[in-house]
Structure formats: C-alpha cells, structure tokens
Amino acid sequence: MMRRFPLAVALLAGALCSTHPAQARPFDEAGARQQIKALLALPFATDLVGASKADRFAWVEKRNGVRNILAADATGAPKALTHFTQDDGTDLWGLALSPNGKTLAYVEGGDPEYPDDPSPNPNLSAFGTHQTVHLVLDGGNEIQMGEGWNPTFSPDGQMLAFTQKGSLFLAPVGGAAKEVMTVRGSLTSLQWAPDGTALAFTLDRGTHALVGVWRLKPATMAFLAPALAQDSLPTFSPDGRFVAFVREHTPLTYQSLPKAAFWNLHVYDLTTNTDHVVWTPPAGHGGRFFAPEGSGLLWSDNTHLLFPWEGSGWMRVCRVETATAASPQCLTPDKAEVSSYRLSSDGKTLFYTSNAGNVDAWHAWRQTLDGAAPQRLTQGEAMETDLALAGGSVGVMAASATQTAHPVLLAQGHTEHTPVVPELPANTHFVTPRTVIFRSTDGREVHGQLFVPEGDAKTPRAALVFVHGGPHRQMLPAFNSMGYYSNAYAMNQTLAAQGYVVLSVNYRSGTGYGEAFRTAPDIGRQGASEYRDVLAAATYLKTRPDVDPARIGIWGGSWGGYLTALALARNSDVFAAGADFHGVHDMTRPDKFGLSPAQNKAAHDLEWQSSPVADIAHWHAPVLLVHGDDDYNVDFKESTMLANLLSEQGVPYEEHSFPNERHAFLRMQDWLAAYVWMDTFFARTLGPHTH
C-alpha cells in the first residue's frame, strides 16, 4: 500500500481547522475505526435460495468478514453448513439446493461477475486460489467436485451439472464429475429439461451468444436457430417440448432511436426443430431489453410465458400467449418497478418485489394470474428487494434503517420467521434517513436520502454528497441488499454520527424511477447529464442553515467514483474535497467497428468532454484515491493515470492501493482500512466537527 500526504493537504487542513476553534472536536481515528468496524462486522445475508419440493432455504451470511452458508426450514433454527473462520476474501456463491433440500451445492472462490477469469487472491496466498464447486451432502459430509461454477441439480436431484469456461461437467450426487462436452466460448447458463434428459445452455462467444441443448443420451449438442445476435435466458416449457429465449441486437451509436426495437421473444419447438418469434415489442418504451438481476423467462403453462418488459416505461412482469400474436398482458402494477420475481410450482401465483405505491420503498407481493389484486406479503417497515420460493413457502431478503439484510421466511406464505436478526452493537445510535426530493437545473426531479446528525449545531456543519455506483442502482433509506452499498450505508451513518450532514443522491441513469429516468438523454459518455443532479444535491445542501457551504465534500465508488472526480474537476469551487474509490476518469473508448471515421471522432469528442480528465486544469480540491489493482470492472490504470495528472497540476491528493483486490473489496479488513482513510481524510480537509 502506498500513501502520500502532500504538504498542501496539511496546510489546507490546518487552515480549515482554525475556522471554529471553540467548537473543534479532535478527530479520534481509533474511535472511528472501532465504530466503522462494528458496523461492517454486522451479519449480512445474501444469495437466498430455496428447494423446489421442500420448505428449506439456504443463504450466505457474512459476519465479521467471514462468510458461511446457513440453511433453515421455514420455521426452524438455522444450521451452519460450512465452517470457515477467516476474513480472507474467499467468496461463497452460486448456491443451489437439491429438490428435496437435503443436498447443497455452492461455489468457493472466484468472482461471480467474472467466473471464467482467474480467481482473485486478496489474501496474498503464496500459490493463488481456485474457484471450485462443492457439495454438502445430507449428514454434513462435503465433496469437492472440481473447478467450475453454475452448479445445477437435475429435477430428480440425482445428478449435478456445472461448467468451467466452455466445458460442461456432469456428476451423480456423491460421485465424481466427468467432462462431457467442451466448446469455444463460455457456458453462462444451465437449465435441465423437466425429464432430466437434456440441458439448455447459453454459449457466450463475445460478438454473439448462442442458445443450445445438450442431450445426455446420445451425447449430442445442437444450437437453436443460431443467428447474429445475443441469445440468452433459455428456459424449458413444463412439458419439455419448447425452449423459450430472448434474442437481442445492440445499437452502435449513442443516438436516440425511437423507431427501433432491439429484441424479441423466441420459442423453439424441439419436436419439429422449428423456431418462431413469439413477440417483438413495438418501438419506443421497452425497445431495449432490460431485466432485473437474477430474473428471466417463466412458463406458467405450456402456452403462456412470463417476461420482464418496460412497455409502459416501468419494469413490469408481463405474460404472452406463445401460440398467437396477441399483445402481452402486464400483470404487475404500472408506475412501479419490479426487482425480482418467481412463479409458484403450479404456475398460478406470481411472487415479486416492487416499489408499488412508493418509489423509495420496496416490498414483497403475491398475485394470482387470474387477475386478482396483488397482496403484500409482509407488513413491517423493512425493505424487501429479493425473494425465493421453497416448496410452499416464501423467503424474502429484508433490511431496514437499523438492520442489515437478513432472510425472513414465511411458512406456506403466512407465518413470518426470521432465523437471524442482526442487532446493532451497543451504544450505536443511528439517525433515521429521510427521503428528500429536489430538482436539477433542467427541471429533472431527483430523490435522495438525507442523514442529519442528532442535536442542534451551534455553527453550520460540514456536509457530504454520496454518489452510488452502477449506475443502474438505487440507494434507499435503509441498509442495502448488496454488500457494497450496505457498507456505504453504514459509512454514511458513521459520518452522520460524527457530525456531517450527508445526502445520498439517486441521480438519473439509476434504477427504481422508470425507464425514462434510467435511460435519460445525454447520460454517461453521451454528455454526463447525471452530473447536473449531483450538482443539484450540493445546491440543496447549500440552502440548509445547518450546512457550511464552504465545507461540502463528495464521495463514491465505481460510477460514483467517476462522478466524484467529475465534481472535483468541474466544480472545485463547490466541492471542497472528495474521496474517489476505483472511478473511471477517461471515458473515451476505442473506435467502434461499423462506424465511419467521422462518427467515431464525434463519439470520442463527446466521451472526452464527459470525462473528469477533460477538466483537469480546473481541479484544485484535494482528493483521496483508493483502488484494488486486480479490478476487472474498472481498469487500475484509470487511477494511476489520474494520480499522474494530479501531480502535474499540483493538486493535493492521497493515494492507496490494495494489491490483488477486486472492484468490490472482498475482505472486510480492506473496506475498514479504506473507510478509515476516508474518515481521516475528510476530518483533515473539511475541518472540525461541530457540536
């Protein structure tokens, strides 16, 4: 790790600290570390899955940085299925339960976003790490099946399939795995036929993706209507006769294309080897395919298919009759988004999570497909953004303003049972963030969460704008269901406890507020219009009497790191300091094949003007830079390049790197170090806290 403390930072901090000497409260780095560590150590649950024929759930719990897998019946106490003890950054993911719930498959190591790339090694193990598939059998015995990912049980629970790059492996449960197929590319999805005689898969070859079927007997492979597109989300009909999938094409330009549609639904008949397009969306809203993470196509019976669509401008679940050209029927409420959805085993009831009624609050719902009104599954204040089904029971992932993500299990959809209840450390006092709405300079309505410290300030406080990454994300007035943003919420609470006013801004290009908000004109490389919302957040803070307008900072990671750097480059007169975690700083891309030299030049000019480095000459506010050097999402050179440019401009900065860490730091101890660096940096650059 490298650290730099330029003289300019020390001089600036000294000047700011002398502003209110009577109210100064020395920054306690040891106390800050203890407070942040206590919140990061809270149990955090993710990857909730259920057994198809038993009321049994499993999930990953990270507690004090250590990951383990727990399982529980819908009304029972949880049982640990793994027994790891170290915060070494080894991820556990890809969970699957056998239909009867007695056997668990999971992946140890690797990176779920980049499963076919080398496994990360943030703990600096001498010989690296591997990504391996494991089975935990009934009784607790564990078997390592081999390197790979995507474990998938057969319908009878007797066989396990998994992949590694272009290889398909099969194994009897409890037996050894055998490679049965290998092709060029990456196998990115698997689904068993209902009778267990075949597997549908997606083969990603970069420029295009194909949907195929592997038949166990005889051992043969076939591709379904191969084309020049990105095919994905294959799913068998209940009788196994049909495979439905999505076919997408990608536009080359940034131009608005209101007359075009870029995807359609296909159904392939395996008995006649014929493919037909079930439905193509009209141009306009929903003309580009977009789906909630982890969700896809669902057959309610052999002739009706459920799919996600934004035809009204909002992410909804819709149903189409596959044998006719009839228009789809959208099932979930309009003017609301869906973040996850599942179908009951009899195909008659849809379960989903949605922000219906309040775009800043998510809850779980049940809705029969006969047109009945939706019913909320839970009645508490917690947010629910994901769910799983197990037998006749429902499990939701819940989080609140004071509780990290945890499973809530509803036996047969009624009685609530919470196997693990996260409890705050002693003497922890959270502020209750409240939703605020303000407008950008072009009139765009922007939502955010405001964290106001308890008590009245005798003098105006320092303030911080937080910008999430993605950018397809939404922050809420609660802990987040993603570990990255759960940590960010905990840090914003810590900053508020220390006396900062914090505003977390849901800028345009994020999710939760409809397609027009997510795909707003001129966002990102097309002109960075979302920065108007970030600047509007600072303007809102300036209007508050409890905020010192000269002491407003900004922080964020990934796309939030990009916007942090853009804020400091364009408006060091507004933002007095910033913390940039693994941000993008030069938005220009290589030439696109198929565009003319003039078109590529115009695109590059726009990308450059949207980049922080384009305004580097105006940057003078101090910045903290933190980046892991094994980042597959944002190239590490983005930060090394920025450090070089800041040096040339004489801009004060502090720099840190984590050797072998990924984009979302895998070790809690690295998040802790990074947040303490940031806390100390803002204490130095934004001045003292006030009482």
UniProtKB/TrEMBL annotation:
Residues in Peptidase S9 prolyl oligopeptidase catalytic domain copies: 492-687
Signal peptide extent: 1-24
Domain of life: Bacteria
Keyword list, A-Z: Acetylation, Hydrolase, Protease, Signal
Molecular function GO terms recorded: dipeptidyl-peptidase activity; serine-type endopeptidase activity
Gene3D superfamilies listed in its UniProt record: alpha/beta hydrolase, TolB, C-terminal domain
A GO BP entry: proteolysis
Function: This enzyme catalyzes the hydrolysis of the N-terminal peptide bond of an N-acetylated peptide to generate an N-acetylated amino acid and a peptide with a free N-terminus. It preferentially cleaves off Ac-Ala, Ac-Met and Ac-Ser. Also, involved in the degradation of oxidized and glycated proteins.
Record protein name field: Acyl-peptide hydrolase
